[in-house]
Amino acid sequence: MVEVTGFCKRPFFLRPFQMSISEIEAYHQLSTQIAYLDGGFSAGIEIVMTPELKRALKKNVQWFGSYKKSGELAKVQVWLVVNSGRIEFLTNKNSYKVKRVQRNPRAICYVGSKEGPEVAGTAEIVTDKADQKRLYRAYWKTHPVFMLLGIGLRVGIEMVLGNRVVVRVVPDEPNLLAGIHE
Question: What is the pTM assigned to this prediction?
Answer without folding.
Answer: 0.72
